[in-house]
Write a structure and sequence with these properties.
The chain has about 80 residues and is of the alpha+beta class. The chain contains 2 helices and 3 strands. It has a domain of about 60 residues. The protein is about 30% helix and about 10% strand.
């Protein structure tokens, strides 16, 4: 069985949440992640929330240091050049 995790540091928020949660089963992780999303982030515990959370699960354990935020794609350099 592969350990799973979800890491709030990957998703910018007003609260700057630094919680990372891991568990040995997806069901256990889903329960705790949903409880966290409701109690800390003010979400409603709905089937849609749980489906979204499940899609964010990753294999392994959270990194010790904050993950790098996703970088926007660089604009095409040729698009701004005069022809």
């Amino acid at each position: 069985m592969t350990r799973k995790f979800i890491d709030c540091r990957e998703f910018p928020s007003d609260t700057h949440c630094s919680v990372a949660i891991s568990a040995d089963s997806e069901e256990e992780l889903l329960q705790v992640a949903a409880e966290h999303a409701v109690s800390v982030h003010g979400h409603s515990d709905t089937p849609e929330l749980r489906a979204q959370l499940r899609q964010l699960f990753r294999d392994g354990t959270p990194p010790e240091h904050q993950p790098m935020p996703a970088q926007p794609a660089a604009p095409d350099a040729t698009a701004s050049r005069p022809h």
